[in-house]
Amino acid sequence: MEQKNEIEVFGTINKRETVFTIDDKVEPGTMVFESHEPFPGYYHETPFDTKPIYMYVVLQEHYPLESIIRATQEVEKVFDEKFDAGKGFLTIYNTTYNVLRVRHLNRYDLIGTLQKAYSENGIHFSGKNKKNLKEKANIRVVKFFKLEEISEGIFLDKKERFHAYIELPEHFEWEAFNDLSNRVKYNWEGSKFDAAVGAFYHQGRLREFVRIYSNKLSLDYLEQIKKLYYEKMK
Known about the structure:
alpha+beta
């Protein structure tokens, strides 16, 4: 039997998205953002696909990652619906919010219940709710990845559909990465994709990557994207 080259690693993803505040069904005295387009480079071009729901719930303070993980494990024991949560930071202009990133929650009316469950496990929420706020935000999510390396420097996400990662030879801040991605997409003729930048720690070093979101994640497709990114870096 062929052995799969799977790894579990810790890392971060950085992206820029338009977010807006939601008021309905949230706990009083708290602030919750929803992403208008979680993967804008993809869903902007494929508007008839069902968009996933990504919410960012403002935390009362900066909680260590292990506290978030510990609370999540306890909440999962009692919460009836499927969800995925992670630690993050959301910046609008000069204001940075510590947030709990929530996804795979299929019903909006559950967000308040989820907030209560976290509060019972020591993770509290706050924030002055600014009604009708809609702005571009820089988002950084801290998470664990379960990956399978299908070719050198190309990984598929084993937990999330439509997610793949291509290793880059150097680090990029968001603006430089966005410029690079725009050059790639301008010269790309294949199926549309969304790109974000990040890094994960593996075998004693940080590996920089571009996260690709698409429903066309064949090896050939990803190798073509990798080739074009490397060409446009020169």
